[in-house]
Amino acid sequence: MRYSQLLPIAILFVLFSCKQxxxxxxxxxxxxxxxxxxxxSLDPAASSNFENNWAVNQLYNGLVQTDDKLNVIPAIAKQFxxxxxxLKYSFSLxxxxxxxxxxxxxxxxxxxxxxxxxVLSFNRLFDSRVSSAMSxxxxxxxxxxxxxxxxxxxxxxxxxxxxxxxxxxxxxxxxMKYFSVVPFEAIDLYKQDFRRxxxxxxxxxxxxxxxxxxxxxxxxxxxxxxxxxxxxxxYLDAVSVCFVxxxxxxxxxxxxxxxxxxxxxxxxxINEVLDKTGxxxxxxxxxxxxxxxxxxxxxxxxxxxxDNIDIVKNSPLRLKAxxxxxxxxxxxxxxxxFLRNGVGIPAAGxxxxxxxxxxxxxxxxxxxxxxxKVRQLLMxxxxxxxxxxxxxxxxxxxNDKEKVEFIQSQLAENNIKxxxxxxxxxxxxxxxxxxxxxxxKKSWIADYADEENYMSLFYSKNFSPAGFxxxxxxxxDFDALYEKSLKELNDSIKISLYQQMDQMIIDDAPVIPLYYxxxxxxxNHNIKGLTSNPMNLLNxxxxxxxxx
Length: 548
Fold this sequence. Notes:
Elements: H1 9-15, E1 30-34, H2 50-59, E2 64-66, E3 72-74, E4 77-82, E5 88-93, H3 115-124, E6 151-155, E7 158-162, H4 170-173, H5 184-190, E8 204-210, E9 214-219, E10 238-242, H6 247-255, E11 261-263, H7 270-273, H8 282-285, E12 288-303, H9 310-313, H10 320-328, H11 332-339, E13 345-346, H12 371-380, E14 392-397, H13 401-413, E15 418-423, H14 425-433, E16 439-445, H15 452-455, H16 476-487, H17 491-508, E17 511-524, E18 527-528, E19 544-545
Parallel strand pairs: 1-10, 14-15
Antiparallel strand pairs: 2-3, 4-5, 5-7, 6-7, 8-9, 9-10, 11-17, 12-16, 12-17, 13-17, 18-19
Helix pairs in contact: 10-12, 16-17
């Protein structure tokens, strides 16, 4: 690498130390944040969680990306077209995108990205040893019709993808970090160790990663994107990520100026920082500003309703009237106000969260607190005033205990007895997938910004453990609408189909939506240009920092 691309080695450990509050070189702007859960890989093929995604997003680009309003916009592809039959996607690539400088290249200098690089990058995703993205490629046509390839580099600047049948969510899927471009030279050189020796095209380049301690990425001086004034991005000189696991310690580091941002309700004490309306307490407003943003995340209580399974046969939850009664038996507004200090939006609609186009509480009517409806439905189910109804057991993790105890109390007031059992997250995850629990608390975070990602959970061909239909919900009318929506390329028609499906889910009640979550960040006032988005993807290329 050329010297100009590096920060002086002598100051690196001081400049980026998680224990050092002041930068030694005040002319360098370094964005510091903490990642409590840690990062497991810097290979985009392994970007299966948002912790990895946040780091990967600084290092890589794909064909397309989403803006902060979730519109799909060009990235390395300067333009794209979809054939009338929806089976061929053609991408024209920019000619000014270069891989980061790396020992993998001759002379250490990164070369230009060409269409063949996307063929290699996408084909890697078919290897289950490399990636968990295989299911996203089920619709790729690798038949005789496409010479068994599925992807083709027509020339250096034209890349094509072939589908078996139209899939309206496919363009949104391509915005996922799995589909970032990587160079074959780096894969050949580092092999399995590519996970900690990343080479991409992104706004920042990899410098060092001491797993569990810190990750350093520095400015890419050759990055292709520019701002509206023609200034090359990014503005920051570097990004430093620490991995402090203790919430209180990390928060103190923020207060001491060692971190520029803390993100997530679990990463800060919301009872301390926020008032009951969700606003920032005055004591913190002098130094920080609060970012709140719609988050494509639905928290819910799921119900296994497959009466072919023994634990369902004798459960009152097999009855739709009982499931509907539970939906009416607690106050979602109070849950958000008193248990989450205003963070989140009460689930007054369907399973599809606010932030997606199909979200519309006028079109999809959800549940609200209504004791009269509870009494009526329990009567219909054969349990007048709850008499004769067995206790219902809800399985949760410790993080949800306080919220669920509130629901338990309100259900008791409405003659529905709820028992709570707390499991370790791994135990709950495995048991739910194996259909061992009748009722469970979970959440669903969008992998890509399309309603199909939510409705797929209720498609009968996605029964767990093979898929994510943990409820074993089966409705022929729903399946027909779902299959129709996959092929529908007209946006307004597709939205209507999603709303019809979502209403079916609410009416049949295999799920109890609790709230649509919100992205929440506490950010130092010296940070400007930090945008937020409903995917909760960290974008640092437009951030500026003032060193005091």
